[in-house]
Design a protein that fits this description.
With about 180 residues, the chain is of the alpha+beta class. Helices cover about 20% and strands about 30% of the residues. The protein has helices at about 1-35, 70, and strands at about 45-50, 60-65, 75, 90-95, 110-115, 120-130, 145-155, 165-170. It has an 8-stranded mixed beta barrel with strand order 1-2-3-4-7-8-6-5. β2 (about 60-65), α2 (about 70) and β3 (about 75) form a beta-alpha-beta unit. It is globular. About 30% of the residues are buried.
């Protein structure tokens, strides 16, 4: 039984490391070629860009869709919101115990970067809120140009719940008043 459990865990670890490698390769190709790439043949998701959060090594691939398939591997773009790299309100979701575990550590004023084929946009954390999962206004374009990060609440919870932790970010203006892009 012990060998079976060890073997199963070893298989999952190897699979996770391989997925991380393939996602990193697809991210590089997405940024180099200027269009979203599939991380492996037959994948039902694409890498759209990367989210850079404060802290060493906190880069998360942003994948197409915010369903279970995407969120198992990283952060997912919420359909209907602006795509990474485009003007408008881009919403990205991630699991509280995986890709977005670090959201609880973001504070007002922290810088978050969103890399996409069109360049890198910088944002500043301007607020956070706990809302019911039915409150879809958090992804509405009416909120203007910006970035919304969404995960489950409470952090450290063991079961899915009806609450979401939402971080609101606004573009960091350059000296000329436009958002920073490189």
């Amino acid at each position: 039984t012990g060998l079976g459990l060890f073997g199963g865990q070893l298989y999952l670890d190897v699979k996770a490391r391989l997925a991380d490698h393939l996602l990193a390769r697809a991210l590089a190709a997405t940024l180099d070629e200027g269009r979203p790439q599939r991380p492996w043949p037959g994948a039902d998701l694409k890498v759209l860009g990367a989210l850079e959060l404060p802290g060493p090594g906190l880069v998360r691939p942003v994948l197409s869709g915010a369903g279970g398939g995407s969120l198992a591997f990283g952060a997912g773009h919420v359909s209907g919101s602006a795509l990474p790299g485009q003007r408008g309100r881009c919403a990205i979701a991630g699991h509280r115990d995986r890709a977005f575990r670090c959201l609880s550590e973001l504070i007002l004023g922290d810088e978050v970067k969103l890399r996409a084929p069109g360049g890198t946009r910088s944002f500043k954390v301007v607020g956070h809120s706990v809302v019911d999962e039915s409150e879809t206004w958090v992804t509405e374009p009416l909120l203007g140009d910006g970035l919304t990060l969404i995960t489950c609440w409470p952090f450290g919870g063991l079961r899915p719940g009806p609450k979401r932790y939402v971080v609101f970010c606004e573009p960091i203006p350059d000296p000329d008043g436009a958002s920073t892009e490189t």
